[in-house]
Amino acid sequence: MTPAQKTEAIELLKDKFSQYSNFYVTNTESLTVAQISKLRAVCYEKNVEMKVAKNTLIKKALESLNNEKYAGIYDSLNGVTALMFSDSPKEPAVIISSFRNEAKSEKPYLKAAFIGEDLFIGDNQLTTLKNIKTKNELIGEVIGLLQSPISRVISALQNQNKDGGEADAPEAAAPDAPEAPEAPAAE
Q1: Per DSSP, what are the bridge partners of residue 27?
Q2: b or e along 125-142 (b: 16 or more beta carbons within 10 Å of the residue's beta carbon)?
Q3: What separation in angstroms does the CA of 106 have from each of 22, 27, 109?
Q4: Does 164 have pLDDT greater than 90?
Q5: Whether the Cβ atoms of residue 122 and residue 27 lie closer than 8 Å to each other
Q6: How does residue 36 score in pLDDT terms, banded at 50, 70 and 90?
Q7: How far is residue 182's CA from residue 80's CA, in Å, rounded to a whole number?
Q8: In this structure, what is the dihedral angle of CA atoms 132, 95, 68, 117, given to the nearest 10 degrees?
Q9: Phi and psi, residue 149, nearest 5°
Q10: CB 119 within 8 A of CB 112
């Protein structure tokens, strides 16, 4: 690579790291070309960008953005490295797990993942990453929790009326009842 190509690659990586708050560092070393193509296709379907880059270029891109923030990732930059960028914190973990199950293989191997501001190191973190709740899942749970007490109150009120309990509004006077005489006007 020429110095100009290296600079261009570093700038491209910096843009990706700035664009996404979630990225995975994986090892795809022993995968065949067909397997890599299949993995890329699955990533594309799930809106996950996959980039293969040299470790030194990745490190330079991260250092130029925020050396301290990404310092824990540097030890993971060895061997063949493929980066997976995603808006979803767990989608790459799901892709890696399902790909491994289908291929009956240990690759791609998770070296590290950077989710929001949190760093996950090692392949043993894959299960944890798969179980992370996305923003939409958390919002759905909160809405469900908020609706739950309201639903129970409404249900209790409906059941109370069906079981012969008091009605919500007082009943009007019976239609056949005689009307009360009017009181004489005050003078």
Answers
A1: 81, 109
A2: bbeebbebeeeeeeeeee
A3: 22, 10, 6
A4: no
A5: no
A6: very high
A7: 98
A8: -20
A9: -65, -40
A10: yes
How far is residue 50's CA from residue 84's CA, in Å, rounded to a whole number? Answer: 5
Q: What gap in Å lies between CA 27 and CA 31, rounded to an integer?
A: 9
Type of residue found at 108:
P
Where are the chain's structural domains? 3-131, 133-162
Question: What are the strands, taking DSSP E only, across the chain?
Answer: 22-27, 49-52, 81-86, 109-115, 118-121
The distance of Cα 2 from the centroid of its chain, to the nearest Å, equals: 38
The residue whose two tokens read 């910096």 is 14
Instruction: Indicate the length of the chain as a whole number.
Output: 187
How far apart are alpha carbons 35 and 23 in whole angstroms?
21
Sign of CA dihedral 150, 154, 157, 159: negative
Tell me what pLDDT residue 98 has.
92
Q: What is the C-alpha separation between 89 and 113, in angstroms, rounded?
A: 9
CATH superfamily of the 3-131 domain: Ribosomal protein L10, N-terminal RNA-binding domain (3.30.70.1730)
Q: How confident is the model at residue 61 (pLDDT cuts 50, 70, 90)?
A: very high
Give the Cβ contact number of residue 178 at 10 Å.
Answer: 6
